[in-house]
Each structure stands twice: as C-alpha cells, then as structure tokens.
Design goal:
Elements (H helix, E strand, L loop, with lengths): L2 H7 L3 E5 L4 H13 L5 E6 L7 H9 L5 H6 L7 E5 L11 H10 E6 L10 H20 L6 E4 L23 H10 L2 H12 L11 E2 L16 H9 L5 E3 L9 E2 H8 L19 H14 L12 E3 L2 H12 L1
Parallel strand pairs: 1-2, 1-4, 2-3, 4-5, 6-8, 7-9
Helix pairs in contact: 2-10, 6-7
Length: 326
C-alpha cells in the first residue's frame, strides 16, 4: 500500500456494510493487513442461522483468507468491531448507543451490502438495494466528521448505454417515486410493472462479475458461487454443458482483489473498473482455458466429463441443456 493511502487512513475509523460478503471480507483483510495505523473497522453484520454477529466474525477469522493476519499481525484482529445491524431496518437496525458512537467517531463508510439474487422479485431488490442504500445515506448524513461514503455498484448499471461515462447517470425512473409506489403496491402488482421499470435490464440485480483473487491474500481465493464462479465450477463438474452467449464477446470480469485495491483509493468520485481494451479475453478463450485446466487438475466428484460448449442460438442451447439434464 502506498504511503499516501496509508496516511489518508491513519487513525480513521471505518464503517463497512456487507462485511460478511465476499467484497466486504476482502476489504477488511486488505485494510487490516496493509493499513497498520487504521483506527478501527466497524463491521455491520446481522444475525444469521442462529449465530450472532460476534460468532460470525469469529468464524470469519478462521477462513484461509485471514491466514496472513493470524500469522503475521494477530494484534490487528482487535481493530475489527462487529456491529449488529441490517440495512433493511431504519437506522440500519443499530443499537442507539453504538449508533451514536458511529456518528461521533467514524469518518469513512463503505456500503457493500446488497441482495445478490439475480432473479429476486423487484420488491426485494428495491428494499435491499435501493431503500437500503437510502438508509445508509441517511445514517451517513449524521456522521459528524464524514469525509467519504463509497457505494459499490456494478459497471453494467446501464446496459443500454454504448459508452459509460465516469459519472452518476440518470436512472430510468425516479427512485423516490418507485420506492413510494413499492410501499403500497403488492408483490404481484409491482412485478407487472417490472418490465417498464427495468427496461433493458435483464433482472433486478444485473449480473455479478467478480472472479477469485489474482494475488491477495491468496491467488485463486473465493468463497461463493455467484456470477462467473458458479459457471466455472458447474462446467468443471460437468453439470453445465451448454452456455448461451456469443463466444467472441468479451468476458468482463475482475479479480476481487483488483476491485478492492481500486475502491480504497481516496478522492475518486466515480470510477468504472473494467478490463479495458488492452486485456480483453473472450468467453471462448475462457472456455478453452477452463477445459484444459480442469483436465489437468480435475475437481473431486465430477458429475460428468467436463466438455460443454458455447451456443449463440437460444433454441439449440435449450435443446442441448434439456437433453443433458434428463
């Protein structure tokens, strides 16, 4: 980490939503390992499957992701403070005493929490990803010494734009009006309006494009099956036999550590992180490399011999997919 970045974070206290997600965990690991003088990190975590946020953080420390902190800088683990909360609740569901501490002490907010379900009902997506962000902004406005609020999104928020400028583009519909309508419309009524609200968006989330870590903290580390990861593992196990796309299309995917390294750099209002024109890899190349790799280093317990193909014709894709699943 550069001295300029280290100096900027020195002594500062940070709030992270979505701390237990892939991006949240990699951000926390990077900050604790590479920014020794950071004040502390408040990690917003909700209770899940009967486990408290404190228990979930304890489980998180055991992951291979945090091995270099456990081995080299175990004292930094004390700088991660679990905060019980949920972006689906007003004031993020944070205890009033803890919330006041955040108002008084935090100066940087990273908002990563979101619903990642590709086919989530529109109401769920609005509640988590739109209203949830609104709640984070409302809390951030009360932080006395706020210097930065970083909102993580997808570079493909506007799939109908031929060129994405590094600015906040106008949404297809007024988000405040949509949220007001969602508060009284039923799920079925809102789903009927979904096509006109989403327009050219294929779903209420619009893709997930992170790949395993390139270098830090461990090459190849990942802990979920979202987006391209699920596709790669499914194909490697022989489960996915057909992929519907054009093979010459570019695979716009980013290693998670590259994304985090870009996010923590201060003073960039809007930054589109994509592969760029000089590092374009096509989906056919991804498939060919994947086939060669999985044959050299096969997965445990494959369902079938991994030998899928790309098909741009939807009918042929569905016929092949159906034949393989029967």
């Amino acid at each position: 980490m550069t001295s300029e970045v280290n100096e900027w974070y020195k002594g500062r206290k940070v709030l992270v939503t979505g701390a237990s997600g892939l991006m949240g965990k990699v951000l926390i690991e990077k900050m604790l390992y590479s920014v020794p003088d950071i004040g502390c990190i408040f990690a917003l975590v909700r209770s899940k499957r009967g486990k408290s946020p404190e228990a979930r953080i304890e489980d998180m420390w055991k992951l291979p992701l945090f091995s270099r902190i456990r081995e080299e800088k175990p004292h930094m683990m004390k700088k991660l403070i679990p905060v019980t909360g949920d972006i689906s609740h007003d004031k993020l569901g944070i205890d009033p005493e803890r919330l006041q501490q955040i108002y008084d002490e935090v100066s940087i907010v990273f908002h990563f929490a979101a619903s990642l379900r590709l086919e989530a009902p529109l109401k769920e997506g609005l509640e988590m990803n739109t209203r949830g962000t609104q709640r984070v902004i409302e809390v951030s406005r009360n932080i006395k010494n706020l210097v930065s609020l970083v909102h993580l999104s997808t570079a493909f928020c506007y799939p109908d734009y031929e060129r994405m400028a590094e600015k906040v583009h106008d949404p297809p519909a007024n988000p405040h009006e949509v949220l007001r309508a969602a508060s009284w419309l039923s799920d079925d009524q809102l789903n009927l309006l979904a096509p006109s609200l989403m327009q050219k968006h294929p779903n209420s989330y619009t893709y997930s494009k992170l790949t395993p870590a390139f270098k830090e903290p461990k090459p190849g580390w990942v802990d979920n099956l979202n987006g391209p990861i699920g596709l790669m593992i499914g194909a490697g196990k022989g489960v996915i036999r057909s992929m519907h796309c054009y093979g010459h299309y570019h695979a716009e995917v980013i290693p998670v550590d590259n994304a985090i390294n870009a996010i923590i750099v201060p003073d960039i209002p809007v930054f589109n992180l994509t592969t760029g024109d000089d590092r374009n890899t096509t989906w056919k190349e991804v498939l060919d490399i994947g086939k060669a790799t999985v044959r050299k280093y096969p997965f445990e317990g494959p369902l079938w011999y991994p030998n899928g193909n790309i098909r741009h014709n939807r009918l042929i894709h569905e016929l092949c997919h159906g034949a393989h699943t029967k």
